[in-house]
């Protein structure tokens, strides 16, 4: 029996949130670890080789996680994970059929000029190609791993919406942001669960004075 055109469409599948750590795997207290525990649709990507990251190995492991998801995917990367995301997009060239529907890129590090850690060298040069999916890049004004103007330029090159997080260090466990509820609002924006305007509300005063968007 043929389906009636009046039957309701099947509900959209909830995206899988793949949490992509940076150096040392985003340890205890990191908001990524908290999200993995608190969000039913989130899981950490086990990249391995934490003490000596290898770019192509990490690309392959991220690609495996994306391909086996079996549903739409949102990439949530921190620090070196942001560079991994850019390299994955450059090598894999995801098209319209790709499961990746967006990315939240938090505190990318400088890898081209005087990187803070020698382990970042293998991820240079920074890909300058625009990402083929919607993305938000969040940067801190006093991040010891990258200068704020460089982060802003990176967002422009990647075609990412830029969020000024104020003085929040490397936006990690040391930033004392707990589960980073404001980051969850940005995530909901990417999934379409919250309008962009809702993410413009100020962050807590003890973390950042405001949330600033730039194109």
Can you give keywords for this protein?
215 residues, seven-stranded mixed sheet, 5 helices, 26% helix
Give an overview in words.
Mean pLDDT is 86; it is low at 1-11 and 194-215. Helix 2 packs across helix 3. The protein has a seven-stranded mixed sheet, with helices on both faces. The chain is built from five helices and seven strands. It has 215 residues and is α/β, with parallel strands linked by helices. It is 26% helix and 15% strand. Helix 3 (80-92) links the parallel strand 3 (73-78) and strand 4 (100-106).
Q: How is this structure best summarized?
A:
Helix content is 26%, strand content 15%. It has 215 residues and is an alpha/beta fold.
């Amino acid at each position: 029996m043929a389906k009636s055109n009046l039957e309701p469409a099947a509900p959209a599948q909830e995206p899988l949130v793949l949490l992509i750590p940076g150096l040392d795997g985003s340890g205890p207290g990191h908001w990524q670890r908290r999200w993995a525990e608190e969000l039913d649709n989130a899981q950490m990507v086990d990249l391995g080789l934490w003490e000596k990251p290898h770019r192509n190995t990490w690309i392959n492991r991220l690609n495996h996680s994306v391909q086996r998801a079996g549903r739409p995917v949102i990439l949530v990367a921190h620090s070196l994970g942001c560079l991994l995301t850019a390299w994955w997009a450059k090598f894999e060239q995801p098209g319209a059929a790709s499961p990746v529907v967006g990315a939240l890129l938090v505190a990318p590090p400088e890898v081209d000029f005087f990187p803070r850690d020698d382990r970042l060298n293998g991820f240079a040069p920074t890909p300058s190609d625009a990402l083929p999916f919607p993305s938000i890049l969040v940067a801190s004004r006093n991040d010891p791993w990258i200068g704020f103007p460089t982060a802003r330029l990176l967002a422009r090159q990647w075609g990412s919406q830029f969020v000024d997080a104020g003085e929040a260090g490397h936006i990690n466990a040391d930033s004392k942001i707990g589960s980073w509820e404001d980051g969850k609002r940005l995530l909901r924006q990417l999934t379409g669960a919250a309008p962009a305007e809702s993410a413009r509300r100020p962050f807590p005063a003890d973390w950042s004075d405001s949330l600033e968007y730039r194109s």
